[in-house]
Description:
Pfam families: DUF5958 (PF19383). By secondary structure, the protein is an all-alpha fold.
Amino acid sequence: MVLQDEILVNKFGQGLASYEVLLNKFQLFDLADRNKFLNDLLFLVLQSKPTDEDIGDAIRESGLKPTFTPCVLLLKGVAYHNLKKIAELPAGEQEKVLKLFLSLFRVSYQRKFKLERNDPNKWWYWDLSKDENIKKVIDQLS
C-alpha cells in the first residue's frame, strides 16, 4: 500500500476520512490492485489487534447485512486465516469486503488510538487532522 493510502486509512480510523473517499479510490483500481489493496488493508486490520468482541460492532458499523458472505465468515473469528478467506472472496464481493475490513479496522483502531494517541514512535496514532503531522510522516518515510 502506498504511504498516501495508508495515511488515508488511518485518517478513516480517526474519523477524518469517509468510507466514500476510500471506495472511490478502490473503484479506480483494476482487479490486481484491488486484491493487493485488500491484502494490505488486512495487514493494517491485524496491526490494530481486533478481537472477536469487535465483530458485532464492525458488522453494525459497516451497514452490511449479517447474512452477507463476508459477515458470515467474520463471525467465525478475527484469526488471520478467517480474515484471509474474506480478503480472497470473488471480485463481486470486494466492495463488501472493503467496507467490512474498514469497519473492523476502525473499531479496533479506536480502542488502540485512545491508549496510544500521539506516541512519538507510532505515526499512525498521531493526530492526522494536523497537516504538519502528515508532512512529518511523509518526510520521515519518503
